[in-house]
Amino acid sequence: MNVAVIGTGYVGLVTGACFAEFGLRVTCVDTDADKIAGLNAGRVPIYEPRLDEFVRRNADAGRLRFVTDVREAVEPALVVFIAVPTPSGEQGTTDLSYVDDVARAIGECLYGYKVIVTKSTVPVLTAERVRQIVAASAAAAGRAEVPFSVCSNPEFLREGSAVDDFMRPDRVVIGAEDERAVEILKDLYKPLDRLEVPFVTTNVATAEMIKHASNAFLAAKITFVNEIANLCERVGADVHDVARAMGLDARIGRQFLHPGPGYGGSCFPKDTRSLVRFSQDLGVRQRVIEAVIEANEAQRERMLAKIDEMTGGVGGKTLAVLGLSFKPNTDDIRSSPAIDVVRGLQRRGAHVRAFDPQAMRNAAAELAEVSFCKDAYDAAQGSDALVLATEWSEFRGLDLRRIRAALLRPVVIDMRNVYDRSEMERLGFRYSGVGR
Ligand SMILES: NC(=O)c1ccc[n+]([C@@H]2O[C@H](COP(=O)([O-])OP(=O)(O)OC[C@H]3O[C@@H](n4cnc5c(N)ncnc54)[C@H](O)[C@@H]3O)[C@@H](O)[C@H]2O)c1
């Protein structure tokens, strides 16, 4: 089967490489000619564990191609995935202009039946919008009679483990209005049958809703534990013990109960805003998620206040910041709490010495006047305090005596609770974590 994936970013490239790994013939398209030229020269543009190996193997086998021309990908394809950005527009609305452009382009080269699938995270009812745009564009090109289906197949992969998540998903959600499209999509995912991956087949609106509800729930879970952590700090309770005991209740579950600087990344912030906004537009408020967004923003400020307090005011001081990506194992810095904290420190007059194992190139494009360092020890050198912002595993194994010797003052603000307070105090640090 021929598959086209339009948009070759974190989701599109992983989707393309993994479908090719399933044995399908995949053509990935992107408007970014440099990205496509790089991929054709064997350069994977993002850091994602195992992705380069998947891309290389399947490109070498001739199953995975990269092009800039939509027509070249769409014409031979039975299934066309849309994996372009859906960023926040004005007042939380989703900017659907990329999706609209792609829908128009698909309509223009609709020569035979195709299943068109939105993999981008979109507001409910977007598939219907795509259907209308494709139909209008096909009609304008004189192909009004060519049949097609529009489906929703939301993506749940996590950056940092995207390839593994795609190859072993918790579930595959297929939203479709016709049986033929469902069968084609199930066929596409057939290799997952042997892993007994559950398929949830619904109508299109339900599939679109599942993605938004899932992201909003996860954002709420993180925010909930952050608010409990803030209370724990005031009453001498340890949020990790609270979270562990809560999580042992199967109704609650253990994951996503880790306190920190608040959620970030390219999905939760924009998707929660989008849910709130499109719900409002439909006259159905999402009060819980409105509060989640507000509390999450406040958590960033809380972290800055904590750093201020621990350093006696950051103005004029030098701060070492470890980790810049929004979470470990990715180079993605979109809405990263670490980046927000760096900016907040700079606004308060601090100088920042930063280190991240993979995200410094992206960070350098966003941040001015940061000293990018060669490792954690270099960042600590001569700094007035150290802020652990993103919990890359290499930071867990640091030689803390060496860190202490490098710092001007032995102050550590651990926004991810990576270190053990008593151990840190034994080593002579003034230490502050979150919620304990
Ligand atoms: N990143 C994630 O973890 C994740 C997880 C699940 C869902 N999603 C959703 O998937 C979608 C894509 O996210 P991403 O992180 O992969 O974005 P991204 O920015 O990494 O990649 C998008 C790519 O689309 C390309 N593009 C833009 N317009 C195009 C067009 N008209 N034709 C062809 N290519 C075009 C861009 O050049 C870019 O390479 C978003 O809706 C996002 O919400 C992302």
Please tell me about this protein's structure.
It is globular and about 75 Å long. The termini are far apart. Helix 5 (97-108) packs parallel to helix 6 (126-140) and helix 12 packs across helix 13. Strand 10 (351-355), helix 14 (360-366) and strand 11 (370-372) form a beta-alpha-beta unit. It is built from 18 helices and 14 strands. A 6-stranded parallel sheet has the order 3-2-1-4-5-6, with helices on both faces. The protein has helices at residues 10-21, 33-40, 51-60, 70-74, 97-108, 126-140, 162-167, 179-188, 204-235, 239-247, 268-281, 287-311, 337-347, 360-366, 376-380, 393-396, 400-406, 421-426; strands at 2-6, 25-29, 64-67, 79-82, 114-118, 148-152, 172-175, 199-202, 318-322, 351-355, 370-372, 385-388, 411-414, 430-432. The protein folds into 3 domains: 2-202, Rossmann fold, CATH 3.40.50; 212-293, Orthogonal Bundle (N-(1-d-carboxylethyl)-l-norvaline Dehydrogenase, domain 2); 299-432, Rossmann fold (3-Layer(aba) Sandwich). It is an alpha/beta fold and 436 residues long. Bound molecules: nicotinamide-adenine-dinucleotide. Nicotinamide-adenine-dinucleotide is lined by residues 6-12, 29-32, 35, 83-86, 98, 101-102, 120-121, 155, 157, 159, 266-267.
Summary keywords:
436 residues, alpha/beta, Rossmann fold, N-(1-d-carboxylethyl)-l-norvaline Dehydrogenase, domain 2, 3 domains, 6-stranded parallel sheet, 14 strands, globular, binds nicotinamide-adenine-dinucleotide
